[in-house]
Amino acid sequence: MTAVFALATSLLWGLADFGGGLLTRRIPALTVVVVSQTVAAAVLGTLVMATGGWSEAGPQLWFAVAAGVVGPAAMLCFYRALALGPMGVVSPLGSVGVAVPVGVGLLIGERPGLLQVAGIAVAVAGVVLAGGPQLRGAPVQRQAIVLTLVAAFGFGAVMALIAEASSTLTGLFLALFVQRVANVVVGGAALYVSVRRGAPALPEGGGWRLIRSSLLALAFVGLADVAANGMYSLAAQRGPVTVAAVLASLYPVITSLAARGFLKERLRAVQAAGAGLALFGTLLLAAG
Questions:
Q1: Is residue 2 within 8 Å of residue 238, measured between CB atoms?
Q2: Which sign, positive or negative, has the C-alpha torsion 267, 270, 273, 275?
Q3: What is the dihedral of CA 158, 164, 167, 172, to 10 degrees?
């Protein structure tokens, strides 16, 4: 079940990143973060009330608060990077954040077998190659790479934190709700500061009309991200964190394939080879 939950995580994160990247080309990134996470918080609040999740409150929720503080900064950096460069360049570099939860797993005593170590190495290499990263080019490309690496560390930290925030399903709903509320508070504060400095909160030429017309897409991004966090937490609780983290980090492959299918971004030979390596690494991890 660890592999199933982790692969579902990668699918959901990949689609959320694709949707978020498209939205930030029309709507300010901070606005995308705040609106999408507000929708997610409202849905999760309803789930918590319906399942009695409040009874699971405890000190472990501080991990969810920390994840909620780190998450918006990581998402903002990532969305800005996606708006600056092709998704196939930015998305795979975000996978280097897997080093954070993998490192945590090793520190708590996990020791993957030889086959799993090989699978981790092959899968991570495949994810990076799947986007055909271009490390040389215009200043915009270099800026996108720096933003992506900052976001990657943040994403990895969120993965490690949310895995510690609950031990039951109802507790997971509560932890995810707390995380989203923190996301909205931090993101909203950042949006306020940004507006005070002269940056627009609403898209130029569309305003609230464009926000309303994009509400379903914004809701999808927020809810897919929530579901991915939940799936990852379940995966990390049911198996080795090192394996769960690597399989969950395959999401850039999904983003690249979505960009190919919907935006007609052509896959280079190195991208196709990378997707194949990622699949092979997944098989090695499952076999191990």
A1: yes
A2: negative
A3: -20
Model pTM score: 0.78
Distance CA 78, CA 86 (A): 12
Paired tokens of 154:
């943040």
Distances from the Cα of 273 to the Cαs of 86, 261, 262, in angstroms?
19, 17, 21
pLDDT surpasses 90 at 63 = yes
Q: Which of 180, 154, 173, 164 is nearest to 230 (CA)?
A: 173
CA 233 from centre of chain: 13
pLDDT tens, position by position, 102-139: 777 778 777 777 777 787 788 777 766 765 655 555 44
Torsion angle of C-alpha atoms 3, 7, 9, 14, degrees rounded to 10? 160
Residues 6+ away with beta carbon under 8 Å from 117: none
The residue type found at 56 is: E
